[in-house]
Write a structure and sequence with these properties.
single chain, mainly alpha, globular, Undecaprenyl-diphosphatase, hydrolase, EC 3.6.1.27
Length: 278
C-alpha cells in the first residue's frame, strides 16, 4: 500500500510538471531523493519515462480535433475527409523530433548515468529560469512573428527540435521549457509555442517509452506493473487539469513566474545537497 501511495504521488508530480515549464524529470529525480520507490534501478529508469504516457494521453484527449487528420462529418464529404493542414503540422512535428531521435538511439545510455543527478537538475533549473525571465523581458512589446501553427515553417520546427535536444541531455532543463524558450526566441506566440510543445511531446515520449520498454523487456512483476499503471492513470487525470489551466494562463500572462520558481527551487536544491545534507 505504501508503494501504491508513492506511485500516486509520482503521478501527481508528473501530471503537474510535465506541462508547466519547470522540468518533470527534474522534479521526479528530486522527489526520488526523498520518497524512493522500492524497485530495482532498472525499473525506476523505465518508470521515470513510461509514466509520462499518461500525461501524453491527456494532450491527445484535449486536442483531438487539432491532432486527428480525418473528418468523417457530413459537412466534409464534399471536400473530402482529409485535413491537409493537420497532416502538414504532423510533418513539422516529425522534423522537430529528428534531433531527439538521433540522440535517444545513439547517446542516451552513455550520457544518462553522468547527468541524471540533483546537481545537474539544480543548475539547469536556474539557468533556464534566468533564460525565461531574460527572453520575456526582451519580448516585451514585440509582436510575435508566428501566431498560428500553420505559420510555422519546417526550419522553425527544426530549431525548436534542437532546443528540445537540450532537455533530452540535461535533466532539469524541462522539455516543454526548452522548446518554449526556443519558440519564443524565433518569434512564436506563447499560445502557439505551448501547443506545438504539447504536440511535439506525443511522438517524442511514445518513442522514448518504447525504447525503454524494448531495453527493459516486458517481464514486469505484478507489483511493478501495478505501480506503472497507477502512476500513468494519476498523471493523466492531473494533466487534464494542468493543461487547461496553462492554456488559459498564458493568454493573459507571460512565463516569468515559472522562471522565478525555477531559480528559487534550484537554489534550494543546491543548499540542501551541499549545505544541509553534506
Amino acid at each position: 500500500m505504501i508503494e501504491i501511495l508513492k506511485a500516486v504521488l509520482f503521478g501527481i508530480v508528473e501530471g503537474i510538471t510535465e506541462w508547466l515549464p519547470i522540468s518533470s524529470t527534474g522534479h521526479m529525480i528530486l522527489l526520488n531523493e526523498f520518497v524512493t520507490l522500492d524497485v530495482s534501478p532498472e525499473f525506476w529508469e523505465v518508470f521515470l519515462v513510461v509514466i509520462q504516457l499518461g500525461a501524453i494521453l491527456a494532450v491527445v484527449v484535449l486536442f483531438w480535433n487539432k491532432l486527428f487528420p480525418f473528418d468523417f462529418s457530413k459537412r466534409r464529404k464534399k471536400n473530402g475527409i482529409i485535413k491537409t493542414d493537420i497532416f502538414v503540422m504532423w510533418f513539422k512535428v516529425l522534423v522537430a523530433c529528428i534531433p531527439a531521435m538521433i540522440y535517444g538511439i545513439l547517446l542516451d545510455d552513455l550520457v544518462e548515468p553522468y547527468l541524471y543527478n540533483a546537481t545537474t537538475v539544480a543548475i539547469m533549473l536556474i539557468l533556464f529560469g534566468v533564460a525565461f525571465i531574460v527572453i520575456e523581458n526582451w519580448n516585451k512589446g514585440r509582436k510575435p512573428r508566428i501566431k498560428s501553427l500553420a505559420s510555422l515553417t519546417y526550419r522553425d520546427a527544426l530549431i525548436i527540435g534542437l532546443f528540445q535536444l537540450i532537455a533530452a541531455v540535461f535533466p532539469g532543463t524541462s522539455r516543454s521549457g526548452a522548446t518554449i524558450v526556443g519558440a519564443l526566441l524565433i518569434g512564436v506566440s506563447r499560445v502557439v509555442s505551448a501547443e506545438f510543445t504539447f504536440f511535439l511531446a506525443i511522438p517524442v515520449m511514445f518513442g522514448a517509452s518504447l525504447l525503454k520498454l524494448v531495453k527493459f523487456g516486458l517481464g514486469f512483476s505484478m507489483t511493478e506493473a501495478s505501480l506503472l499503471i497507477i502512476g500513468m492513470v494519476v498523471a493523466f487525470v492531473v494533466s487534464m487539469g494542468v493543461i487547461s489551466f496553462l492554456m488559459g494562463y498564458i493568454k493573459k500572462h507571460d512565463f516569468k513566474v515559472f522562471g522565478w520558481y525555477r531559480i528559487v527551487l534550484g537554489i534550494l536544491v543546491l543548499l540542501y545537497f551541499y549545505v544541509i545534507a553534506a
